[in-house]
Amino acid sequence: MGGSHVVGAHAGHALEESPYRIPSKKLVMWLFIMSDAVTFAALLFAYGYLRNATPGWPRPFHFSPTVINAMIMTFVLVTSGFTMLIAMRAANLGNKAGALRWTFITAVAGIIFALLHIREWIGLIGEGLRLFQNPWGSGLFGAAFFTITGLHLSHVVGGVIALAVVAIGYQRGRYDAGHIEIWGLYWHFVDIVWMFVVPFVYLLNIAH
Amino acid sequence: MDETSRASQAAHHAPPQGFIRNYIFSLDHKIIGKQYYGLALLAVLTGMVLSWLMRIHLVWPNSPVPGLKWLAHTSAPNGVITPEYYLSLMTMHGTLMVFFVLTNAPFAAFGNYFLPIQIGAEDMAFPRFNMMSFWMTFLAFCVLMAALFVGDGPPISGWTAYPPLSAVGAVAGPGQGTGQTLWGLSIAIFCIASLLGSLNFISTTLDLRARGMTLMRMPLSTWAWFITACIALLAFAVLLPACGLLILDRLAGTSFFVPANLVVSDQIQPHSGGSPLLWQHLFWFFGHPEVYIAIVPAMGIVSHILINAMRRPMLSHKVIIYSLMSLGFLSYMVWGHHMFVSGMNPLSSLMFSFPTLVITIPSTILTLIWIGSLYGCKLRITSASLFALGFVSLFVSGGVSGFFLAQPSIDVLLHATYFVVGHFHLVMGVAAIFGVFAATYFWFPKMFGRMMNERLGKIHFWLTFVGAYLIFMPFHYLGMAGNVRRYSAFVNDYLQPLLPVHRFITIAALATGAAQIIFLYNLIHSRFRGEPAPQNPWEATSLEWTVPSPPPWDNFAGKIPVVYHDPYQYGVKGATGDYVMQDSPQKIPTVPEEGRR
Fold first, then answer.
1. How far is A31 from chain B (nearest CA, A)?
2. Per-residue pLDDT tens for B244-267?
3. What pLDDT, on a 0 to 100 scale, did the predictor assign at position B343?
4. Are residues B316 and B347 part of one domain?
5. Quick one: average pLDDT of B258-287?
6. Is residue B180 part of a domain?
């Protein structure tokens, strides 16, 4: 039985092993991801709804620095997705040191992403972007920008904390490879959400 | 599975020690189920008293209500309800009933208690989530209750909290200040609690079934709770960010839901660019599935109870399950029918009207199965089966008006009237409450180890059943006569000729509400003085009746059952009695379902 199958409330009593069976904790992470995806979708829907209803929606972003910064952030986050995969693979193979190392590298990438993001926020706030107003037009721009990227950023920060907790617990034998895999799922989800944020929130709002 | 995880599960299943671990922060799904039931009872009594105050104000607007001046001395000076306070009562009544009664009682309370037992599990998959889920719901309840007593008045925007007035803050009048903010906060907390509950219900159903408990062998009540959890998982995920945006509009000065140049109380609001319609879309994307979160568990419970009373299976087990699933699926596609009069593009109205009419198909199939199965059976008349029949009756009476309201051309006339109020109270409110009553009379012996008084239960049924119709049928007439809703009084306007109808409704509401004292007395008296309940008083077949009443802390005292049969083996020839329990190894001659009729 693979390392990923040892997690969670046991499924043991069913008549036969279902080919679709996954451990409860992993199932719950998938369910949470579905629910959270709907939450992000609702916010993106709200943004799209308001953007379409607003004539002269502000498009303040330029290639430098915003798009360059977004490209670096995307690169960091996608790379962290790869390092997370390596960590999950190492954990499944029972390579504890490798799993720990790569989980921490992933968490560090998450911190770099968050710092780049906060630096960008500070820059934009310096240019006058606020939750309720901005120098370029409709105040809804800042509201949508900060709400969507803020929710994503809080997911990244939460993910970094979770990865650290799980890695330390894994080192002490409190958690197993399955937990690394579960939080790997979460990390990939946060990654995928970013792939929606970049085109909708950044690329659609480049000045031309 | 491996031994370590089994051992770790056994560890958190050790019998709890001490009062606090046992009864307050309990991890036991049975205690948590009872906690939800108690909270729902508290909420329903509060909500009922609020509705009495509303009814009294509608027909005697200038008379003081005894005692009210002590409870609400600013909102109801000298005990006379102000129009604003009427709106507060309506808001709190709706919010309490929809979230803390109709979501908590049929789904969270009975689901928590009986879903694990019915599938042969020792507990929920995540007992700690379960405990957090209840206590967050309790916190949400406290925050909402605090809103009732804040200095600048309780919220007045209705349970739907439509912007712009709910989003601009205190300038919109009394109750739009702190009260409305607390409302948003309470609902946001409730969303998170509900998410934790749904995660638990789904993973428990999928992962913790006993040996032999295939999906199709699950009782219909378990199926209904499972489907409801799937609906709630995605529905509350939209209400949560909606509440977040509403709170941002109120506290951080954003304008998601407030349009430009809005004048409120003679002041131009500093917001611009938002859309009140956006809130309605987000809210009703949650709001319509919420209706099914309330009614689907009741459908499952009622089917479970009726089968037991009929002593034979429903015409089709599978079609009931598929119909419940289609209700859940379609419930996400019809939210726009709440917005026919909102100024939404009329083409969208047409788009939403079609799936709304389609959703009547699974509802009708369910009704036909219930009635067709009842045809020609020898029904055992108990309080539980009477309330189950009452559910079917109310679901039909309240549902039929839905066919009309689904069509924009008719809805435009009726939407803002009492017709809609009558419709949803019958089909969603009272019907689901009847499901809860049926469940209470049916499962009380298992939960508390004592029988309820059947005679009192039947008196309670007839008074409540007749009362519900006396209250809500005239609402339809009022609506067709043009009586707009959400008005606090009709003393000096064109609606004056309808006042006698209102007076009749108020008296019926006071009497039907008073009749609930019989239920409360029965509940409390039976809890302590009822006849001791046998293990299986209703000669039922599902797993909850294979364990003692009340069940031990780990449900099956360490002996996890093995399931051999479909859930409803009634009317089996050659069986001892006329039924075979799900865990009985006894062989059943395979008789086609028609053969048993």
1. 7
2. 999 999 999 999 999 999 999 999
3. 87
4. yes
5. 94
6. yes
Whole domain around residue B158: which residue ranges? 31-216
Consecutive H or E run containing A92? helix A68-92
Contact between chains at A143 and B238 (C-beta distance less than 8 A): no
Q: Tell whether the model's pLDDT for residue A94 goes beyond 50.
A: yes
Same domain, B527 and B556: no
Q: CA-CA distance, B9 to B4, in Å (whole number)? A: 9
The predicted structure's pLDDT at residue A16: 52
d(CA A1, CA A12): 14
* SS3 of chain B: helix, strand, coil, percent, to 5: 65, 0, 30
The tokens of B44 are what?
């329903």
Q: From the list B4, B212, B282, which residue is nearest A46 (CB)? A: B282
pTM passes above 0.80: yes
Mean pLDDT of the region B430-446: 98
Q: How many residues does chain B have?
A: 597
Residue ranges with strand state E in B482-559: none
Beta bridge partners of B211: B562
Chain B residues lying within 8 Å of A50, measured CB to CB = 256, 273-275, 278
Please give the helix or strand (H or E) that residue A28 lies within, else none: helix A24-53
Q: Are B454 and B512 in the same domain?
A: yes
Q: Is residue B372 part of a domain?
A: yes
Q: Are B72 and B85 in contact (CB under 8 A)?
A: yes
Task: Say what the pLDDT of residue B67 is.
Answer: 85
B78/A197: higher pLDDT: A197
Q: Does position B446 have pLDDT exceeding 70, yes or no?
A: yes
CATH assignment at residue B362: 1.20.210.10
The string of DSSP letters for B206-229 reads HH-PPBT--GGGS-HHHHHHHHHH
Do B188 and B316 lie in one domain? The reply is no
Give the tokens for residue B30.
Answer: 């049975």
Q: What is the mean pLDDT of chain B?
A: 92
Q: What is the interface pTM, i.e. ipTM, of the complex?
A: 0.93
Joined together, the tokens standing for residue B545 give: 């009746």
Tell me the H-state helices in B219-316. 220-251, 276-310
B270 assigned to some structural domain: no
Report chain B residues whose CB lies below 8 A from the CB of A39.
237-238, 240-241
Q: Are residues B191 and B306 in the same domain?
A: no
> Which domains, ranges and CATH numbers included, belong to chain A?
25-51+58-205 (1.20.120.80)
| Statement to judge: residues B415 and B560 lie in one domain | no
> What is the rounded CA–CA span in Å between residue A58 and residue A64?
17
Please tell me whether residues B59 and B196 are part of one structural domain.
yes
Q: Where are the alpha helices (DSSP H) in B96-219?
A: 110-119, 127-149, 178-207
Which alpha helices (H) appear in A93-206, and where do they start and end?
96-126, 140-171, 177-197
CA distance B300 to B190: 24
**Total of domains in chain B:** 3
CB B228 within 8 A of CB B139: no
Helix (H) or strand (E) holding B264: strand B263-264
Residue B229 lies in a domain: no
Chain A residues contacting B, CB < 8 Å? 1, 5-15, 21, 23-24, 27-28, 31-32, 34-36, 38-39, 42-43, 45-46, 49-50, 53-54, 131-132, 138-140, 143, 147, 151
Residue pointed to by tokens 């719950």: A28
> Could you say which of B480, B508, B532 is where a domain stops?
B532
User: Are residues B178 and B77 both part of a single domain?
Assistant: yes
pLDDT band at B10 (very low <50, low <70, confident <90, very high): very low
